[in-house]
Each structure stands twice: as C-alpha cells, then as structure tokens.
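Exercise: predict the structure of this protein bound to zinc ion.
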Amino acid sequence: MTKNDHPMKDGLETGCLNGECVQIPDGRELYLYGPWSGSPSWPHLTEPKQKNTAHSRWHPLRQEWVTYAAARQNRTYKPPANSCPLCPHAPGGELPLDAFTIAVFENRFPSFQIQNEFAPDLSSHDLQTKPAKGRCEVVVYCSAHEGNLSSIPQENRELLLKVWGARRQALLTHDEISFVMPFENRGEDAGVTLHHPHGQIYSFEELPPIPARMADSFAKGYSLHNQISKCPEQTVIDTPTASAFVPPFARFPYECWLLPKAFHPAPDHMSEQEIGDMALLLQRMVKLYDTFFKRTCPYVMIVYMAPKGMEDVFPFHIQFYPFLRSTDRLKYLAGCEQGAGSFLVDVLPENAASDLRNAGESLS
Ligand SMILES: [Zn+2]
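Solution:
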C-alpha cells in the first residue's frame, strides 16, 4: 500500500473516525491521521499478539480496582534514538512508514483489552477479580524523534486535539468502554520510557475513581466555567476562546488547566477557531513551564473528556501536573499524599498564577 500526501479530509473530515486504518499482521490496528507516505509492512510482527493475562483485583480497603499486567515488565525501556520504535522505518519498530503526521496504534503491551475474558478465580483467597477490559493506545505526535508538544507544528497540535475527540467517539461505540482518557507523561522524572513525542489513550470499562468523583460533582451541578469566571486572577494565558489558569484549589505547586470558554464535552464538538486556540495554549503552556523552571519540565498531562452519557455536564478540559517545585526540586507525592490522600502544597495558587504570568510576559 502506498499513499502520498494523503488528504486529511479522507480521514477525519469525512466522518471516518478511525482515520485511515492499516492492519498490523499481529492483529492490531494502526490509524493514520493527516498526510502520510510509505508502504508499511511488519515482517517482525507476524505473530498474533499474545493472549492477555492482565486482570484486576478489588482492593477492599481503598475500594478500588488494581490492574496487574505482568507482560508490561518486558516492554521497551529507554531505547537509543537510532532504535526508537516510534520513528519511521526504525528496525523492528511499530511504524514502518516514510513519514506520517499523527499515528495511533494499540499498545503491544496493553494493560486493558476489549476482548479480554481472563480473570483468575481467587475466591479461595477472598479476592474479587475481573478481566481488565478496555484499551491502551499510543498516540505519536509527529515523525520527528526530537521535540515536544510545544515544538511540533501547530497543525499537528490541532490535529492531535481532533484525534483525541475522534478516538473518544470511535471507542465509546464499544459496550465495554465508558470513558476515554488521553494523557502524556513527560520526562524521565515522570516515568517516560520512550522519548519520541507521544502520548497515550487509555479507555476504561467503568469510570475509574477520580473521573467518577469528577462526574459526580458535575452531575450535581458544579460548573468549572462558573468557578473560573469568579477567579479571573488565576488566569495565566488568555486567548479569544480558551484560557489557561491555575485552579484556586491546585494540588501541585504550579498545576495549570486549559479550558475552552464555551462548554464542550470533547474536542470534536469545537469550531476550528476553538481548536486553534486550544492548540496554541498547549504550545504556550509547555514552553512556559520550561521557561519558568529553566529546564525541561517533567509533567503529567491529562485530557478529560465526557464519559459516555455525560456529554451535557462534563466539560472537556486539560490538566497539567508539573513535577517541580522549583528548578532543582522535584515535587514528590510523600506520606501525607500517599497515606492520607491529602495534598500539601507550599505555593498558594494565586501566587503560582502571578509567577507563571510574569514568566509568560518574557515569552511574548
Ligand atoms: Zn523516535
């Protein structure tokens, strides 16, 4: 199969939610969004993917599911740049293409799978188990090995927002999936094992504990938009249709959230201008963190979109948790956070907002 300058309208814009789908011989699917070229073949991936033995066990004290995916221990760990599995044409890699814009594929070492009936019977141990149903996908932001959300082209960031929305819509058609959560871990301090610019999309059968609590608040009438309109001093970066702000109840010292000014359950409901402004915020937020901390800022970025059936109340927004308190001090989750679930923060959110705003002025 060879494609050159494949027009994007054949993917997202004609309603083909999966982008252009290419079958990997091991049974997984590769979705290509935006122009791409090459004749993909995977001679090293002809074996059907291994049967999943991932499963979940109920933690009776925390009252939440814990998922065990032993196969993940053998996944690729910090490969050198010349054998990065996300680079086009890398030997033994995932993406044997000449070039691509954005690529999405199912993780070779998934924690969750849609077709997964494996659940060991541990009733004699008084343990409740269930199959780890869901899906784990990798989203590669660009062909180039070097870069980050701030340095990739604006058109890739805009497309990435559309891909998140399109994957949510496609994945929610499965009965086994009720919640789709893209995220990015950045930096070795945040546990990153591959440096090629990429993120992930995890899909869950049931709402996990944190989104479930969020959904409960939104269902009871809490409005993030109302909250932010009452705290204008928290704004860090403003655009005509979206803004970045430090939530006045931030749990991390320089935590920031990005929110479209109009309510949308997911990016596929947004206009081109709104997509453009959110993409710009992503670029400026990451650059601002690196400028402010004078180093590559490790962070976790979570993309929250409405769970299935909550499209009227749960707003699409993005949360950044930077893992730094200052240039040379990492923010750890320590005893109080881990043991009590109670966060201690040594920077007031209003001071964090003004610090970040001041640092941002030097950028513009
Ligand atoms: Zn790479």
